[in-house]
Each structure stands twice: as structure tokens, then as C-alpha cells.
Amino acid sequence: MWKKAKPLLILLSAGLNVAFVVAWAAHSLPSRTGCPWGGPGGKGGAGIWCPLHRQLGTSEKQWQEIEPRLKELQKRSQETCRQVNQLRSDLIDLVAAPEPDRAAIEAKRKEILAGQEKMQALVIEHLLAERQSLTLEQQKQLFDMIRRRAGCAGHGPLMGPGQDEGCGMGNALRGSSGDCPTR
What we know:
By secondary structure, the chain is mainly alpha-helical. The protein is about 65% helix and about 0% strand. It has helices at about 1-25, 50-55, 60-95, 100-130, 135-150, 170-175.
């Protein structure tokens, strides 16, 4: 029984990891999540369009440093997300095959993990760069929000409806399908 369930558990784990990474990226990708405030270009690109950064009290000067990085992360993460989703689809096909090839499944799982690591690295690099533009208090507030949304503070649930304070992160968490955020 365990041998039959193991590939499915690996697939489930990979899917949840992708959903988590996408949620982190979606935190910084408002124009790809269909936010009602329009995202970049929604108001001619002027003003702080991300509610998360408005909540942090980001100044216009800080926003001028942060916004280009958000857009760059958005651009770089989309292709990685699409690749990981394609790999997940391939893995499902391998597991669903009449006679699953365990070596091929393991190889595909490793490819998925490499894609997830790449996405995590993009998000971490973004957060490290962004914190340089924020005050110490804003950094504390940002990381406290991330902890709450990731379920770390108090070990609570991820994020329920009506709690979306950021740039679409809640939508990505609630979807939890691992799909790429789209416009």
C-alpha cells in the first residue's frame, strides 16, 4: 500500500510547495493577480498601487526604488512558474501511466524541486533587496505580515477570505492550485 501511495504523496507535496512559492511571488506581483486597484498602469503607473506597500506606509521615494524590482520579479517568476506547472503536469502523466516508470517519476520530481528552489531564490533575493528600501519598522511589519500569511505566527491557518492585505497573496493562497498568477 505504501509503495502505491508514495508517488501520490510526493505529487501532493510538490503541489503544495509550488502553491507556497507562488503565494510568495504573488505577494509581489499585483498586476498578475487581477487586483481591483489596477496594478502598474492602472493609474498611469503613478502612485503606490500595492495595498501592502500602502499599509507599510511606503513613501513615494521608497516606492520608486521598490516598484521596478516588483515588476522585474513578476517578469522573471512567470516563466519559472509556467515551467514548474508543466513539470507537475508531466509528473501526473507519469504517475497515471498504466505502468509507472519509477525512475522517470523520481527524475521529474527532482526537476520540480529544482524549479521550486529557483522560485524561492527569486523571492528571497527580492525580499533582501526590498528590505534595503524600507525602514526598520517597515521591515518588521512586512516580515510579521509574511509570517502570519505563511501560518508561522501562532501556527494558524494560511489565509482565509477577507484577510487579503497585500498584492494578491491571499488570492493565490486561497486558490492553492499551484497555478501561476495571471492578469
